[in-house]
Every structure is written in structure tokens, then in C-alpha cells.
Amino acid sequence: MLGLHSRAWRLGLIVWLGTVFAEFMGPFNVLHQPLNLSVLAWAMWAVWAFAEAYALVFVLDRGLSKGREQGERGPAHRSTAAEPHA
Fold this sequence. Notes:
The chain contains 2 helices and no strands. The protein is mainly α. It is elongated and about 55 Å long. The N and C termini lie far apart (43 Å).
């Protein structure tokens, strides 16, 4: 479960930084939006970015764990990796 939280926080931070950059370059920098309104918008984007990140990481992690239960192996497993050419 710790891996789920760390991956969700990393993804959420990346998504949030992208949206804040767009908000900073548009409404704040070009249209001179007040700082308190910009901070409110950045906080709103943080909530949605982390909600999206948790949803994505949860669904992807659940799919991986179901595959592991069924005995599927990833591409890095030795028995599924391509043999080097002789």
C-alpha cells in the first residue's frame, strides 16, 4: 500500500505542476489575475490532480495484481525475455 501512495503522490505532483504552469502563464501572468484568486485556483487543481492520480494508480495497480494472480509474467522476466542472437 505504501507503493500506491508514493506513486499517486508523484503522479499527482506532475499533473498539478502542469496545470499550475498553465494557470500561471495564462490568467496570472497575462491577464493579471489577483494572487488570492490564483492560489484558490491552484488549490482546486491540486485536489483534482491528486484525485485523478489516486484513481489511475489504483486501477493500474489492481490490473497488475490480477495479472500476477493469474500467473502472467512481465516483459523483464527471464523466461519471457528474448534470447540474445548468436
